[in-house]
Design a protein that fits this description.
This protein is α/β, with parallel strands linked by helices and 357 residues long. It folds into 3 domains: 51 residues, no CATH class; 236 residues, Rossmann fold; 52 residues, no CATH class. Strands 3-2-4-1-5-6-7 form a 7-stranded parallel sheet, sandwiched between helices. Strand 6, helix 8 and strand 7 form a beta-alpha-beta unit. The longest helix has 32 residues.
């Protein structure tokens, strides 16, 4: 692979070559470097970029106990039976002591143990809203560059903050257990907006029919609200389960109405229908042009996040150069200055550099 390694060299160049050659050990090592933020990891991720764009990425979220892990396991197995390769990233809560994934060692892919074409990785949420960190986004790139056909992201299930999953996944499935419909009432607007597919799992339990009906009613109310808030055109295009006018002003494009699927994941019931619905949404994204639009939005958000992180580190260095935060706070407490003035003074060198450029 001459010339593909770009600005990286040595061990990292060999690692990248091995990953692109389909060696799972190299894939695991690259993701470890990404998660640990090892020196040179950014160059690795940059080199991966040219090899991405082929995988289908599905986010699976929902409240704890909804059966996300079981469904992910069965869906991965279903894809494998069709001869497709799968990558799974399970975003777990962060340990307050190590920053690592609290549930990282649990066995969650029972149906796929020993299958090298199902790559499973448990990652720490690192306190990021929605349970997704920049490391998770980069890990998706590694799986994509490796050539995995499908990438499944299972999130923590932390309520409305799960909307962040939509920035990484092309299709978002929200799981709702049939607990007498109570969980439907607890669904927040953000979760309703991001769902492309809603899955009533454990559909063999009492309350499943009621949950399905309440979901339909809430989605109908959401659509009515979206229509009211739109520019007045009834054809406003919906994407990501929400409402959005197209960039070119054409609001008569094809719409995606969120689907509701019933499953009993532990038995595999409803999994084929769920997978078929995911395929329908993917086809819609490609047909309507929304797939490219989502990629543009995702890259814009990624650039912003990286800039925030980098600028934040520069400002932390500047704070230390000025004696540390305690010193700055002491001046505020003594009424010698105020928080706004301190912020202006700290940012001033950076602003000056940007102005000079």
């Amino acid at each position: 692979m001459t010339g593909d390694t770009g600005r990286i060299g040595g061990e990292h160049a060999d690692l990248l070559d091995d990953l692109l050659a389909g060696k799972h050990r190299a894939l695991a090592r690259v993701i470890t470097k990404i998660e640990n933020r090892d020196p040179g990891y950014r160059d690795l991720v940059s080199a991966l970029h040219d090899h991405t764009g082929s995988s289908e990425v599905v986010g699976i979220t929902g409240s704890p106990g909804a059966g996300k892990s079981t469904l992910v396991d069965k869906v991965a197995n279903y894809y494998r039976e069709r001869g497709e390769t799968v990558g799974v990233i399970a975003v777990d809560p962060s340990s307050p002591f190590t920053g690592g994934a609290v549930l990282g060692d649990r066995i969650r892919m029972a149906s796929n143990v020993g299958d090298m074409d199902v790559f499973f990785r448990s990652m720490s949420a690192r306190g990021t809203l929605g349970g997704l960190s920049t490391a998770t986004t980069d890990a998706v790139k590694a799986l994509d560059a490796f050539g995995k056909d499908k990438i499944l992201i299972e999130t923590v299930g932390a309520g409305q903050n799960e909307i962040d999953v939509v920035k990484t996944a092309d299709t978002v499935a929200v799981l709702v257990p049939p607990e007498s419909g109570d969980n439907v009432q607890m669904l927040k607007a953000g979760i309703l907006e991001i769902g492309d597919v809603f899955v009533v799992n454990k559909a063999d339990l009492d309350g499943a029919d009621r949950t399905v009906q309440e979901l339909r009613e809430m989605l109908h109310m959401r659509d009515d609200r979206a229509a009211t808030l739109s520019t007045g055109h009834h054809g406003a295009s919906r994407s990501q389960g929400g409402s959005e006018d197209s960039e070119d002003g054409d609001d008569e494009r094809e719409r995606w109405d969120p689907r509701i699927v019933e499953t009993v994941a532990k038995d595999g019931d409803g999994v084929p229908e769920f997978v078929e619905t995911l395929a329908d949404h993917r086809a819609y994204l490609e047909r309507s042009g929304r797939l490219e639009a989502k990629a543009r939005t995702r890259y814009a958000e990624e650039i912003r996040n990286l800039l925030r992180d980098d600028v934040g580190e520069l400002l932390e260095d500047e704070i230390e150069r000025r004696g540390g935060m305690a010193e700055l706070v002491a001046g505020v407490m003594a009424r010698e200055t105020d928080p706004y003035s301190v912020a202006d003074e700290v940012i001033d060198p950076l602003e000056g550099c940007l102005d000079d450029s």
